From TrEMBL:
Its cofactor is Mg(2+). Residues 8-52, 53-124 form the Methylaspartate ammonia-lyase N-terminal domain. This is Methylaspartate ammonia-lyase. One of its GO terms (molecular function) is lyase activity. SUPFAM superfamilies: Enolase C-terminal domain-like (SSF51604), Enolase N-terminal domain-like (SSF54826). Residues 248-275 are annotated as: Disordered. Keywords: Lyase. Pfam families: MAAL_C, MAAL_N. It comes from Cordyceps fumosorosea (strain ARSEF 2679) (Isaria fumosorosea). Residues 129-256 form the Methylaspartate ammonia-lyase C-terminal domain.
Amino acid sequence: MGRTRVQPTNVRFVCGLSGYFHKDLAAVKSSPHFDPLAVDGAPVTPGFTSVHLPFLRAVAGPWLLRRDVSVFRANAIAVDALGGSGGCGRRLHTAVRYGLTQALLSATALVWRCTAAEVIAREWAVEMSARPVDILASCHCNDWLQLDRMIMKRVALLPHASFVHVRDIGPEGDYLLEYVRSVSRRIQERGASDYHPRLHFDVYGRLGEAFADAEIPSFMELVARAAHPYGPVLIESPIVASSREAQIQRPRQLKQPACPSHRRPDRRRRVVQHS
């Protein structure tokens, strides 16, 4: 028996609030000081009218009404190919595509009376995880109370933090290394003996500016040592390149440390740029 086509009968777009903003990273990087809640800076990236881009109201109602929501994967592919409003041919903003696919995934799960995870597993032919998937919790570098709450709740991945400027990681990366050591000590002091989270730090591509690419693996070895006994350490966006092609190539060219891991990279030929 063939699959029955299921189409929505109505689409409602509602405004929702969350704790996350899409930031104009170029504007944040060029600002002398970073205030995570400030919105009065001048935007730099085309498409931003302020430093923060709120979740946009979708305009794809008629398109959604034509979709068969008994399947999800085909709809997700179609959303990625969907042109912007007015038929301009540009892809919709990432946040809009995320919202549309989340709604479509929820609809497919309702059709089959199952969870969204089961839909993904079936359509991509993968096995369901036998254990809960780790969730990342986030706090700012100076928010030790929030870090303590994460530790008390036994968060699996923490603390994310935000190292937005090169100066945030410090000369030779000293500030970042000391923060990693402090987080490790805090977990040992406040956490249970059987609590062993993974540490995750977002450096916004600043390692690629503070160090030559060949020096980054050696520095990341130092980060791993600072995090002991917790690991492996996850470093988000060590490099942010100027183009998609460069973003693919530069991380691929990173190799094993050229110098012993207990030594710092040779900084005599390179000065850290504070921007």
